[in-house]
Amino acid sequence: MAETTEMQKVIDQFDSYGYYLDDKLDRDIEENRKGQFALRFVDTDGKPLENVKVHIRQVSHEFKFGATMFYLDGYEDEERRAMWREKLAKICNYGVIPFYWDTLEPEEGKPRFAEDSPFVFRRPPIDTAIAYCKEHKMRMKGHCLVYNSFQPKWISDDNRMLRMQIDKRLRKIAEHCGEEFHEFDVINEMISIYKNCYPGNGCRNLQFADEPDYEAWSFARCREYFPYSKLYWNEGMYESFGDRYVGNRSFYYMTLKDHLTRGVPIDGIGMQYHCYCDKETAFWALKQVCNPLRLLDVFDRYGDFRLPVSVSEVSIPSWGNDEEGEAFQAEMVKRLYKLWFGRPFADSVVWWNFADRTAFGGENRFHAGLIRYDDCSEKPAYRVLDELINHTWHTEFSGEAGERLNFRGFYGDYEVEAVCGDKQAKKTIRLFRDTTGYDNRLCDFRAKDIVLA
Q1: Do 416 and 450 form a contact (C-beta atoms < 8 A)?
Q2: Which of 216, 226, 268, 389 has its CA 20 to 30 A from that of 167?
Q3: Which of 149, 169, 106 is nearest to 360 (CA)?
Q4: Do residues 340 and 20 make contact, with C-beta atoms less than 8 angstroms apart?
C-alpha cells in the first residue's frame, strides 16, 4: 500500500468532516447567496403585459471573486498580456489595485497614475488597472493606503511632517480616482511585526506606525477622503486563521473590538490566506488553517462584528507544474471556496498572484498561481473556479411570464431578454441583496420593471 502523502493528509482531514459539512455548506450557499426576485413586464405606458417570452441569464455575482492587478501587462509580449487579461476576467468580477507608496510615488510629487507612466515590475499604473477593471465591469479595491511597509525613500523621519505627507498622498489619490473604488485596505499586517522604526524589520519602514493613534488616525483621514468607499483593516494569515486565532481572545479580534468601540470607522475585515509551506511538511503546516471546523469557527466569531469579511489574499501552493501538486491545489480550491462562499458575512475572496512566478520574492517557489507562467495555460484549480463561478453557482432559465415573474437565483447582475408580440426589451439589471428588499427575513420584494417597446 502506497504511503499517504502530506498533501493527501490535508485533503483527508477536510473530508473527514463530510458527514457534517456536505449538506451544511449547500444549505449555507442556498441561504446566504441566493434570493427571491420579482420582475414586472410592462409596455411604454406602464400597462402590464401577458404571455411574455423571457430569457434570464446571470452575468456576474454580487459576491466578489477577485484577483490582484499586480501583473497586469507584466509580460513583455502582447500575446501573453492578452491571455492574462482574458483568463482573469473570465473568473473574476473584482480587481485589487496596488497603491504601495514606494512605487506609486517613487519621486515626490510625481505619482504614477497615467497609463504612460514608467514601467515598474508588479505595479501597473493606476489608470491602466482602472481601465481594465471598468472594461470588464469589475468592482475595485485599492491596496493599501497607510501601510507600514514599502515607503519611498524621500518621506520624512519626523512624524508631524510624515502625517502631512500621508495626508497629501491620500488627497491626491482621492482627487484622481477615489470615487472609482468600492473599497480600500487602509492598514495591513499590524500585529505580526512590532516597532517599525527598528532596523532589521525588512520592509517595515514607517516609524509613524508605532504611534498609539496610528490606526485610528489612518482610518479617520481615509474616511475624510473616501467617504463612499468601505475601509478595511487587513491582517495576516496566522493572525486570522492560524495558531494566533483563539476565538474572542485573539489579538486581531480584541484589537478590532477596541477600535470599533471607540468609534474608529472600520467598515470591513480582511483575512489573508497564504498557505506557503514545503510539500514535505504540508500537513503539519496546514492542519490548522485547512481544518474546516476551525475555519467555520473563525467566520462565526468575526461575524460578531456584523461587518463584511474578505478572504483577502489567497495563495494555495502547487509546488511546481507536476500533476500531483496541481491536483492538490485544485482539490483544496474546490473545498475552500465552497466553504467561504457560504459564510453569511463573507463578501469576497481574492486570489493574490494570478500566474505562477509573479509573486513577491521567494514566494514564487510555491507556484501558487492559477495559470502557468510560460504559456498562460490553465491549471486544474483555474478550471475548478471556472466551473463553480460560471456554472455551478449560476442562474439561467427561459420561460413564459405574465405581468410579474417571481424567481429564485444567485445575487448578481442579470441580462433579461423579453418578447411579447412585436414588443421586446433587453436589459441588464442588478439583483443584489440591497436592491431587492429581500434579506432572508423579509419577503417584500421590490419588483424591477422591464419595459418592452
Answers
A1: yes
A2: 268
A3: 149
A4: no
**Separation of alpha carbons 403 and 51, rounded Å:** 8
Name the packing angle between helices 323-341 and 292-302 (round to 10°).
40
Reference 111, options 99, 122, 121; nearest CA is: 99
* Residue of 448, 442, 427, 452 whose CA lies nearest to 56: 427
Distances (CA, A) of 215 to 188, 228, 365: 10, 19, 34
Q: Considering the entire predicted model, what is its pTM? A: 0.95
Strand-strand pairing, 404-410 and 34-43: antiparallel
**What are the tens digits of pLDDT across the range 16-40?**
999 999 999 999 999 999 988 889 9
User: What is the longest distance spanned by two Cα atoms in the chain?
Assistant: 75
d(C-alpha 255, C-alpha 216), whole Å: 11
Q: What percent of the chain has pLDDT over 70?
A: 95
Report the DSSP beta bridge partners of residue 406.
Answer: 38
How would you classify the pairing of strands 268-274 and 412-420?
unpaired
- Following DSSP, what letter does each residue of 423-436 receive, concatenated? EEEEEEEEE-HHHH
Q: How big is the chain by its Cα radius of gyration, in Å?
A: 23
Cell numbers that stand for 204 in this block: 517595515
Contacts of residues 170-173 at CB distance under 8 Å and 24 or more positions apart, as own/partner, are 170/145, 170/146, 170/221, 170/222, 170/225, 170/226, 171/225, 172/111, 173/99, 173/111, 173/142, 173/145, 173/225
Q: Are residues 95 and 132 in contact, defined by beta-carbon separation less than 8 angstroms?
A: yes
Distance of CA 191 to the CA centre of its chain: 21
Rounded Cα–Cα distance for residues 161 and 146 (Å): 15
Asked if 353 and 40 count as a contact pair (C-beta separation under 8 A), the reply is no
Within 10 angstroms of residue 165's Cβ, the number of other Cβ atoms is: 19
Q: What pLDDT was estimated at residue 1?
A: 46
Measured CA to CA, the distance from residue 267 to residue 260 in angstroms comes to 9
Q: Hey, what amino acid is at 260? A: L
